[in-house]
């Protein structure tokens, strides 16, 4: 498996491990779950084939969504933020 230049692994290394200091990955083939406490441990499993890319991507997505949820909540629950978002979405790109 390719590690160098892999954008999913870069996100995990520079965002997920910096934020959570771990990553939980569900194994779709056996239904188990493994918690990686270091990037090096994750890379070793990825390179050996013990961690499938199809299991890594949903774990990355889930972790990113946990980080972004407070922002979503802010724009859904704060009237001023909701209005600002509505106004920004109404803008059209002109060139």
UniProtKB/TrEMBL annotation:
It catalyses: tRNA(Tyr) + L-tyrosine + ATP = L-tyrosyl-tRNA(Tyr) + AMP + diphosphate + H(+). It is an enzyme of class 6 (ligase). SUPFAM superfamilies: Nucleotidylyl transferase (SSF52374). Coiled coil: none annotated. Its EC number is 6.1.1.1. GO terms for molecular function: tyrosine-tRNA ligase activity. GO terms for biological process: tyrosyl-tRNA aminoacylation. GO terms for cellular component: cytoplasm. PANTHER family: TYROSINE--TRNA LIGASE, CYTOPLASMIC (PTHR46264:SF4), TYROSINE-TRNA LIGASE (PTHR46264). This is tyrosine--tRNA ligase. It comes from Nyssa sinensis.
